[in-house]
Amino acid sequence: MKKTQKVMFKQLVVALEMFREAGSDSHVEVQTILSFLYICLEEDKHEEGLNVKDVALKLGSSTATGSRNCTLLSKGFVGAKKKGMGLIELNEDPNCRIKKIVTLSKRGVSFRDTLSLVFDDG
């Protein structure tokens, strides 16, 4: 394996470990990680705001799956033992009460910025 490949794989391992720690659990699903990354990439591209359905479309999944992942990235499920990751906020769309607008929380912005440092200059 080339040195540059090893560096890239080490960076990826560090990034995945950061997600595991952010979730305070040894198990964070790839779809949940991808959801966060899609939100980071797409958040500022939508005039009305990014919504849960947009996240689901990027994942190639159902709206229910997108909603589940967004819930895990936000406060978590009501009454669940495990809290959510607190990386995003879900707010009611003023134009349609059943839609939820997705934005990065302060913690999510900080996590995104720290995560990006892992990939700076190897």
Can you tell me about this structure?
This protein is α+β, with helices and mostly antiparallel strands and 122 residues long. It has one domain (3-118): Orthogonal Bundle (Arc Repressor Mutant, subunit A). It contains five helices and three strands, in the order H-H-E-H-H-E-E-H. The chain has helices at residues 3-22, 30-42, 52-59, 63-73, 106-118, and strands at 50-51, 88-93, 96-104. The chain has a three-stranded antiparallel β-sheet with strand order 1-3-2. A hairpin with a 2-residue loop joins strand 2 and strand 3. Helix 2 (30-42) crosses helix 3, helix 2 crosses helix 4 (63-73) and helix 3 (52-59) packs across helix 4. The mean pLDDT is 88.
Using brief descriptors, characterize the structure shown.
53% helix, Arc Repressor Mutant, subunit A, single chain
Q: Brief overview, please?
A:
By secondary structure, the chain is of the alpha+beta class. It has helices at 3-22, 30-42, 52-59, 63-73, 106-118, and strands at 50-51, 88-93, 96-104. The protein has a 3-stranded antiparallel β-sheet with strand order 1-3-2.
